[in-house]
Amino acid sequence: MIKRGLVALAWLGVLPCSLWSLLRWTELATTPQGMLLLVFDAWVYASLLPVALFASLARRGRLLLVVGLNLLVVLGIYGGRWWPQPTNSAPQDVRIMTWNVYYDTRDIGGLVATIRQQQADIVVLQEYNFQLDPQLPEALADLYPYAALNPHSGAGGLATLSRWPVTELAPVARGVDSCGCQYLEIATPSGPTRLINTHPHIPLASFKGVYTKTQQDPTFDQLLKLIADQSQPLILAGDLNTTERQPNYLRLRQQLGDAYQQKGWGLGYTFPSNDTIPKAVRLDYIMPNLHWQPLRAWTGTANLSDHGFVIADLQRLRQ
């Protein structure tokens, strides 16, 4: 009786995975429910490994076959993330760090220590609040004498710290119909580059969990206008509040790279970042255009924010 119960439980664990493996390629994946599943796509398949172990030990051939087919789907989608990246020791022209520091953060000392450890040339911050301004940039002024600071009492604050001179190309734009970004030019030693520090709205109609991207679409429309000119070096970085399986990320990827996807190892999840639950999704990105070659990319965690940070070493391509 116990064995039959375990077999039934195993089938209950694998059948939803099988259903999603089929439906993910259909129009149903574009519905609100389908897009929400895409947000947590890898977690949908989390039951496969324990079921595979049980099926092997219990010698359940059909169950093992179904699990194996689903694992092939997972490997096809995510397998490349676990291949060792070739070592690239070439010197970078720019090391950039992006971090959503959480709008209610007050631990300036912890933030300063974490940022210093990364040795980035450019640091872009989201949810930069009035509690951090101007103490945080002042504490880092020896490393970053140049800054563009736009604090906000809510989640809309943005800040960029730089070793090199910063020019603001447009006023900070906030709101659903704007790019939600800083649009800057950084005078790097290898030449000027444009930089977009952005933090679009969450893709929810409410905090009750009703998924919709209608509040994000206008923001990404504006971002696409800013990155359309590929004649200039440009880097987009920030908390995009979208995962790599969702439409707005894919719109950006038509014109920009993704440093972590290209040169990182593993899934690169950055949210939520705390000690109680594992990270579930990747929301934070460094996306250079065709004038930049990602050399290395990695993520990090500090228990100061609900997001981990992303760092990338970039080399400017000589035209």
With helices defined by DSSP (H or I, 4 residues minimum), what is the helix count? 10
Can you tell me the residue ranges where pLDDT is under 50 for at least 5 consecutive residues?
none
Strand content: 15-25%
Helix % is 25-40%
> How far do the termini sit from each other?
70 Å
Based on DSSP secondary structure assignment, what is the total number of beta strands? 11
- Structural class designation: alpha+beta
Radius of gyration: 21 Å
The largest sheet is: 6 strands, mixed
* Helix and strand sequence: HHHHHEHEHEEEEEHEHHEEE
How do the strands of the widest beta sheet line up side by side?
Answer: 3-4-2-1-11-10
Arithmetic mean pLDDT: 89
Assign an overall shape.
elongated
General description of the model:
- This protein is of the alpha+beta class.
- A hairpin with a 7-residue loop joins strand 3 and strand 4.
- Helix 1 packs across helix 4 and helix 4 runs antiparallel to helix 5.
- The longest helix has 22 residues.
- The protein is elongated and about 70 Å long.
Q: What is the topological layout?
A:
Elements: H1 2-23, H2 32-39, H3 41-44, H4 48-58, H5 61-78, E1 94-100, H6 108-118, E2 122-126, H7 135-139, E3 146-150, E4 158-162, E5 166-173, E6 181-188, E7 191-198, H8 217-227, E8 234-239, H9 247-253, H10 259-263, E9 284-288, E10 292-300, E11 309-316
Parallel strand pairs: 1-2, 7-8
Antiparallel strand pairs: 1-11, 2-4, 3-4, 5-6, 6-7, 8-9, 10-11
Helix pairs in contact: 1-4, 1-5, 4-5
